[in-house]
Amino acid sequence: MQSTTNPKYPFLRRLLQLDQPVPPRTEAEVTAERDRNYRWNFAVNMTDVSFFWVGLSFISAATIVPLYISKLTDSALAIGLAAVIARGSWFLPQIFTANFVERLPRKKPMIVNVGFFAERLPMWVMVLSPVVAAWNPSLALLLFFVGYAWHGFGAGVVATSWQDLIARCFPVKRRGRFMGTSFFTGSLTGAAGAALSIYLLANLPFPNNFFFSFLIAAAAITISWFFLALTREPVEPVKAPPKSNRQFWRDLPQIVRQDDNYRRFLIARWMLALSGMGIGFVTVAALQRWAVADSTAGGYTAAFLIGQMVGNLSLGFFADRYGHKLSLEIGALTGFLAFALAWLAPDPGYYFLVFFLLGITEGAVIVSGMLVVMEFSAPEKRPTYAGLTNTSVGIISMIGPLIGAWLAIAGYNWLFAVSAVTSLLALLLLHWWVREPRFAGAVEQVEESRGERV
Q1: DSSP state for residue 374 in the 8-state scheme
Q2: pLDDT at 19
Q3: Which regions in the chain score pLDDT beneath 50?
Q4: What was the pLDDT predicted at 321?
Q5: Angle, to 10 degrees, between the axis of helix 94-102 and the axis of helix 245-258?
Q6: Largest separation between any pair of C-alpha atoms in the chain
Q7: Ramachandran assignment for 411, one of left (phi > 0), alpha (psi -120 to 50 degrees), beta (any other)
Q8: DSSP one-letter string for 289-324
Q9: Which of 15, 277, 284, 431 has the greatest number of CB atoms lying within 10 Å of its CB?
Q10: 322 — phi, psi (to 5°)?
Q11: pTM for the full model?
């Protein structure tokens, strides 16, 4: 990707605004601009996240997607593949873009200009899938997976830029409340979306019900892009010297070897990612065990989103005060309780609580799983740490559902029991093995140098 700075790629240079000069600026000037635009950036980015999550509620990876696939095929492998994409596609590409993103003085053009084609446009491909589902289920399945994978991996391509943009726009003591409030608002409106999805699934015949669900998802995620484009980025000059891709890859193992606490966090985070192997199968288990109505899946989505609302808002503010490691521990605990209950539940009514607890876990992972990584490194290395963490987590997240599919063939009880055990192991590792990075890492020194005591 480094070659994109070469003049023979003028279109990409214009797309990323590489030719626009970046005047030298002090840390104080960057901080002053960030603080001046704090309220504006909070508002437009919260609206972006809110609309994005409204859209995701209509293609919920935990409920709607498995249900839709089950209408097209009885293959557990297909459901497992969807879970692989949902759990890993956003994470996997990040390490491959990190070195390039670190050299970008402006992160916003990568997110807005490239992201439109990579992340937003493929949502409309998914809308085509239910159109052909009635007469060609195989083609419908193919169209769905093309759009779903394109969207997921495209989001991963711009993810390191987006995370760095958020870190630039919000100081460390306010990131949790921004992410928590944004995802809370998104989950709240998403819960209303889930109520509408219940109506669609219950009152419209297949595949019309899924056509309108996917159409609303595509429209909402496209609207979110317009608000994201309004972000006022505090542009910072590139400080680190250029590094070849070969040198970048050669330095990655050294980061893991030298930083003991970060290495331990990675292992615990991998275990937490592996524990999600059963999420994509909870709805299908309820359908097969108790033959619940399709509309019940919409109710499960609502329970999941309510759990996310609780987790996002409470754990976001909680993490600003006590750190993101403890927030992740709470998420691991609720994951353990959810899978244990899914394993032992005597009737489908208990699955509403299962999805509520899984929603809390998802809220903790989304908010703190992302933000805690930014506190292990200095600002100029954030894309590398984010890429290394998220790509490795993505690999585990993609392997997990495949293991889950294999265990589901043996029986859902096996799948949920193993998921519960791995959640418990993640909790123990995080609590006893990993130190809170806010008080032990590079971020403390950087924020103190700016006069921002953490």
Answers
A1: G
A2: 66
A3: 1-7, 442-454
A4: 83
A5: 110
A6: 65
A7: left
A8: HH---HHHHHHHHHHHHHHHHHHHHHHHHHHHHH-H
A9: 277
A10: -115, -5
A11: 0.76
